[in-house]
Design a protein that fits this description.
Largest sheet: none
Radius of gyration: 21 Å
Shape: globular
Order of helices and strands: HHHHHHHHHHHHHHHHHHHH
Number of helices: 20
Number of strands: 0
Strand content: under 5%
Structural class: mainly alpha
Length: 434
């Protein structure tokens, strides 16, 4: 593994990265594989287990509702756990321990998920894996302050998303091959085997590319040990929230802006298959477009990584927000697969960059020694992404509107996010001037 790590790092693409930066980027390659699987095949596998006429089986509509409830449970649990785990991990030499634990729980659960043959057990294990995965991202995001300098944060963060997008395609394509060809190749219990193989490939990929970070990461920023760690963590979170609300206006207005525009981003990502289905487009065509979007996101994340050397984070964020606003307005015209592909191309152009630049911008405006706690708060807004947007889509659909109108209305979130980001930027300039 060390030889592979060294060989990859010596390549032209990664030559400018330190060992810690490169190892940090690789974790995005690993966790993105699970993200890709959970957005595509896992809901399909769940429905295959849940829908039926037998005892304990569900209708298709009920299965969709139960799945949505499971995802909502993950959101609530992570929102409650994130800040506390982050605050605890800010203590000296604890971040790596918490990160390693969450990764091992996630990887182990991912393997077990494939063997679940009853829908309720399948859902429970998935919730456990998703919570562990989400917690690992809280620790991972907060590592950015430790592994690189402020000047390189935009570029390194963009590399993470870029290679995460392209790297996630490798295990996903392998899992997709077993899903599509399994019934013809395997004969006996093809659905079970394709699930087991799909989860196992993803889990092994996730673990292998995480090993370099577990070896090379060193926590540079931390707070001192305290007695009664959990109680101190809650007290610390309360003080931080009060400070953000009443003193650090730049952080406050950025979080408001981030919640609004990332809600729009999350809604479009979570509903991409629903958009195509409502338009009556081919499922195979949609999967092909989804894979192509990953490649586009990879390329443009690298482009924005280069641009971050010349332009400020806020200017690039403005470009991404305006780009998404245009995508939403274009959604009013959607009818054909070609138009769906054009919209997906637009999403791919800004999808990784808006997330990576938001992460690095936030890293720059928070105290480095409290990064775990702050990113726990940040992830409340991030993990809640698509909550309001999904409610808007549901309201439009219940009212008899089209998916075009529903997605087009997401432009409001990006416009509001742009305005609040401008306010946050002005607060930051005023703070620097003092």
């Amino acid at each position: 593994m060390n030889r592979i790590f060294s060989a990859l790092k010596k390549g032209k693409i990664f030559r400018g990265l330190s060992d810690q930066e490169f190892a940090w980027v690789l974790y995005d390659v690993g966790n993105s594989a699970f993200t890709m699987l959970s957005c595509s095949l896992i809901p399909i596998w769940f429905k295959a287990l849940a829908v039926g006429n037998g005892p304990g089986q569900l209708s298709s509509g009920d299965a969709t509702a139960v799945w949505a409830l499971g995802v909502a449970i993950v959101t609530v649990v992570v929102a409650l756990m994130g800040p506390v785990c982050g605050a605890l991990a800010d203590r000296q030499d604890r971040k790596k321990i918490f990160f390693r634990t969450s990764v091992f729980i996630g990887v182990g659960g991912c393997i077990l998920n494939g063997f679940a043959s009853q829908w309720l057990l399948f859902l429970i294990i998935f919730i456990l894996v998703k919570v562990a995965y989400s917690c690992s991202l809280t620790f991972y995001d907060s590592m950015l302050n430790d592994i690189t300098s402020e000047e390189r944060m935009d570029e390194v963060s963009s590399y993470g998303y870029a290679w995460g997008y392209i790297g996630s395609c490798i295990p996903f394509i392998a899992a997709l091959v077993f899903y599509v060809l399994g019934p013809d190749m395997l004969g006996i219990l093809p659905d079970l085997v394709s699930r087991v193989v799909g989860f196992a490939i993803t889990a092994v990929w996730w673990l292998l590319v995480t090993l370099p970070l577990l070896k090379h990461y060193r926590q540079r920023n931390y707070t001192q040990h305290q007695e009664h760690a959990v109680r101190s963590a809650f007290q610390k979170i309360g003080r931080t929230l009060k400070r953000i609300a009443f003193q650090d206006k730049q952080v406050f207005f950025f979080l408001v802006a981030f919640f609004l525009y990332i809600d729009g981003v999350g809604t479009i990502i979570d509903n991409c298959i629903n958009i195509g289905t409502d338009l009556g487009l081919s499922t195979v065509g949609q999967v092909v477009v989804l894979l192509a979007t990953q490649v586009v996101a990879w390329l443009f994340s690298l482009v924005f990584a280069r641009l971050s050397r010349r332009y400020s984070t806020t200017k690039l964020l403005y470009v991404c927000i305006i780009g998404y606003l245009c995508v939403c307005l274009y959604a009013f015209t959607l009818q054909t697969m070609v138009q769906f592909g054009i919209m997906a191309f637009g999403v791919g152009m800004f999808q990784g960059s808006i997330q990576s630049l938001s992460r690095s911008y936030f890293s720059k405006i928070i105290p480095a020694e409290n990064s775990g706690e702050y990113f726990g708060i940040y992830d409340i807004f991030s993990k809640g992404a698509s909550f309001l947007g999904s409610a808007v889509i549901a309201a439009v659909k219940f009212a008899g509107g089209t998916i075009n109108i529903a997605v087009g209305l997401m432009a409001i979130f990006f416009l509001a996010g742009f305005i609040f980001l401008r306010i946050a930027d002005r607060k930051g300039q005023a703070k620097s001037a003092r």
